[in-house]
Write a structure and sequence with these properties.
This protein is of the alpha/beta class. It is built from 2 helices and 12 strands, in the order E-E-E-E-E-E-H-E-E-E-E-E-H-E. The longest helix is centred in the middle third of the chain and has 13 residues.
Length: about 160
């Protein structure tokens, strides 16, 4: 389902829903970052998605990463919480969702890279090449926090 992201835009529509979701910063053995080229907004992102009833938030991370990328992961820690009320996503079904995302660090433990209905391209990206990709500012913030080894406390914002 296509979506339009509004970020700090005074013309953004008012949100009518909040859905808990997750994202994950995942690095392989050489330090490359697992990235997806999303089908809904044509931007590059770290994998993630909505939390389903009946699962733990850790199970959400594991499920969403494998669904979108084919990679199985083990969750390690929390990068931060991202709840900016000035970031909303408008979907073509009329939903306007306020951002509510918890970002985690996770390690790959198996699987093979593959695309899905939500990802038209999946690849390991060297951090030095991230500037070449079209990435939403809110995802860049998560990546910056997730790659910063000096951060000892999760981001809250």
């Amino acid at each position: 389902m296509p979506r339009i992201d509004f970020y700090n835009d005074p013309a953004a529509p008012a949100p009518n829903s909040v859905v808990p979701s997750v994202t994950a910063v995942i690095r392989n053995e050489v330090g490359d970052l697992l990235m997806i080229h999303r089908t809904d907004n044509d931007l590059w992102a770290i994998p993630g998605g909505g939390h389903d009833a009946g699962e733990s938030i850790e199970e959400t991370v594991v499920r969403e990463v494998e669904e979108e990328t084919g990679i199985r992961v083990a969750v390690q820690s929390i990068v931060g919480t991202y709840t900016n009320p000035r970031h909303v996503m408008q979907y073509d079904d009329g939903e306007v969702r306020q951002q509510f995302s918890i970002c985690f660090r996770a390690n790959p433990i198996g699987g093979e890279l593959r695309t899905s209905a939500e990802s038209k391209e999946v690849r390991w990206v060297p951090p030095a090449d991230l500037s070449k990709l079209n990435i939403h500012p809110s995802i860049r913030l998560r990546i910056e926090h997730g790659l910063d080894a000096s951060r000892t406390e999760p981001y809250i914002g």
